Amino acid sequence: MGRVLVVDDEQAMREFLTMLLEKQGHRVITAAEGAQALRFVEEQPPDLVISDLRMPNVDGIALLAGIRKQYPELPVILITAYASSASTIQAMRLGADDYITKPFRIEEIRLVVAKALARRRAKQPDRASQPAIPGEPQLNGIIGRSPKMIELYKLISKIAGLDSTVLITGESGTGKELVARTIHCASPRADRPFLAINCGGIPEELLESELFGHVKGAFTGAVSHKAGLLEVAHGGTVLLDEIAEMSPGLQVKLLRFLQWRSFRRVGGTEDVEVDVRVIAATNKDLAKAIADGGFREDLFYRLNVIPIHVPPLRERREDIPLLAHSLLTQFSLRQRKGPASISQEAMEALMQYAWPGNVRELENVIERAVALETTDQLTSEILPVQIRTGDDGGGRPGGVTVALPPGGIELEATVSNLEKDLMLQALERSGWVQKGAAELLQISLRSFRHKAQKYGIKKAGRGV
Are residues 51 and 109 in the same domain? Predict the structure, then answer.
């Protein structure tokens, strides 16, 4: 992951690539034309340039030529509508590292970017051999310089080059997927696919096919052969998110794969061998799940070869100013508006709040504040009331309490009303994203959807 300069005269394309790359953990700056991009490169060279080939005035060819004169090692990827055109051929002769043909696939962009950055790292062995330096404020998009984060950086640095299975634990919103992506991008597998699958977000009957693939005729609707994620990610890394939500039957099949590194497609008879590194993640207590009979103990030991715990935000409060300022810059650039700084009073409120939704909740708060703030400084008045008042429910699961009235209550109705209210709060806090709301409540997405249908929860006249 790195600092990427995106150059395109179309605003929609700049915004699309920015959102895509930032989701992968890259830091993105944009330029609307080639001359502006050259100035950015001269002021502070990025790690990678992605530019459209056809632009007015200084086009992609001229931009590439200008970059090559001063920075011959800087990777440049061009976006073109015609792979065989004379301009594309000329660009490759001038030293373009790669090109992407419109219309392109998202996974194609991810792979091309990963390869270009991996080649750049290979040419900088001193830096690549020390991906985590104590005291640095961030590592590939993971931001923080608290002691716990420095230890996390060191651990990632130690295990990135291994093939051992990793189990990442931590509360919802702490950045477990970002940690997994960072491990992949710092590994020798960086130029191969990184694929993530949410084990709680896919119906049980489809999850097996998504993981292992299926053969034609395996079940109704299987009209052709389909490769599963484990097969597609050959040579790369697979993240099994929300691993605790996997059914007992699939746990057995995953255990067999981890033991033998082979599997059978649904409906198939032949063993398929693949080379993938498996990273699992969960916000659940697997020891309790094992005791309750919901998770296999032998699978736990197969997954827990290298355990990594991502600390909640309330345990690294000294990182909040770094995170808040970084997010403020990110969302101000994306929305092309917003305050340039955060007031002392607002920062104190952010520091005091317990952040039960962790970094994801902080992201939502800063994005909302950037959208609503009309001055050049983010003030405390624009923050949600629970942050201004410090009402965080104790900052821990189960922090909500209800007093029993003298006359008693109708328990079932009260619990249902409280459950519905908490679901609505979680939806508001997550921007009405069901997956985010489910994670705030620490339940599976399937369970959340079932409850939402049960209570008839809707937004603006439409179902969630």
Answer: yes
